[in-house]
Amino acid sequence: MAVEINSKIVSYSVKKVVEEPPLAEENPLTVRIPSRPEGTLEAVSEKISYVGAEGRKKVYLLVSFMPVQGVLNGKQVVIERPVEFFFPSGQLSSEHQWITATMRSLSLAARGGYVTQAVADLRKVAWDKGLVRCGMNRWGKPMFHDSEVAAIAWSIQQILYRRGFLDQDGNQVPVEALVSRYAHRLTYGHPWKPPVHEEEEASPGGAVSAIGGGSHEGGENGEGPVVVGHCPECRGELIMMDGCPTCYAGCGWSKCG
Q1: pLDDT for 1
Q2: For residue 190, what pLDDT is reported?
Q3: Packing angle of the helix pair 148-163, 115-122 (nearest 10 deg)
Q4: Mean pLDDT for each consecutive 10-residue tract of the chain (257 residues)?
Q5: Rounded distance, CA 68 to CA 49, Å?
């Protein structure tokens, strides 16, 4: 609509565009999530099998993930974080109470933004019942852990690694990489997956580095548990555990019963 000016113009000014203040930085890795959100979350279900002094055991774990927003370099970003660790109700025997309690604590740590450190600390837990065999390392060698707690913690690290949240050594992936991996998911419709073939080099002398502390792939001088024979039941390797030859190939046979 045209406006007629009937008076003399004595001055003028140019209206300046008001710039919005930059967004405050907010690390999406440490954003606190008050509680598990309502509705459906994507989850990974895994069967964890390990062998210790009491023979072979199997447990099932669920890890739920959700997108979390934050601000990085003044821009809004989204990453995927674990927010819930769950132990299905069919495994609530007395010996599994500690697993249920640990999963609750890990869920709190995940929503608080420090789950990486919490899982790494569990890797350091030891007991007096000997080593626990669980999983294989990147070179296809059996992994030995200081306790059942450490074995399950290592398994959780592997779940988070395959999901792209941790690297293969159990360290936190930088936020920039998490942003890129979640964008990959939105673009291609499936989560980022680690490469099938990774070029890894063993340390000098053939020693293998474990993920975090509290795991063993060797005996004296870090070279692995000493093999003392073969199992009469399954012909697997026997190693010394609490002074008794014990099968770590899977059946859990022990000479001491």
Answers
A1: 66
A2: 81
A3: 140
A4: 75 75 88 90 92 87 94 92 86 71 93 95 92 87 90 95 93 95 89 66 38 50 62 73 69 69
A5: 31
CA torsion angle 93 94 96 98 (round to 10)? 150
Amino acid identity, position 33:
I
Spatial separation of the C-alpha atoms in residues 187 and 182, rounded to whole Å:
9
Q: How far apart are CA 134 and CA 215, in angstroms?
A: 10
Q: What is the rounded distance in angstroms from the CA atom of residue 179 to the CA atom of residue 78? A: 6
Token pair for 11: 């001055």
H-type helices in the chain, by residue range? 97-112, 115-122, 148-163, 175-188
**Whether the Cβ atoms of residue 48 and residue 85 lie closer than 8 Å to each other:** no
* 217: amino acid identity, one letter: E
SS (H, E, C) 9-41: CCCCCCCCCCCCCCCCCECCCCCCCCCCCCCCC
Is this structure's pTM higher than 0.85? no
The number of residues making up the chain comes to 257
Instruction: Using DSSP, state whether 177 is helix, strand or coil.
Output: helix
pLDDT in the model for residue 70: 94
Enclosing H/E stretch for 134: strand 132-136
Return the residue matching tokens 């072979």.
56
> Which residue type, as a one-letter code, is found at position 148?
E
User: Smallest Cα–Cα separation from 256: which of 248, 247, 242, 244?
Assistant: 244
Amino acid 208: pLDDT: 36
**Dihedral pair phi/psi, residue 82, rounded to 5°:** -70, 140
Q: What is the pLDDT of residue 214?
A: 57
Tokens of 170: 């159990």
User: In the beta sheet, which residues pair with residue 69?
Assistant: 78
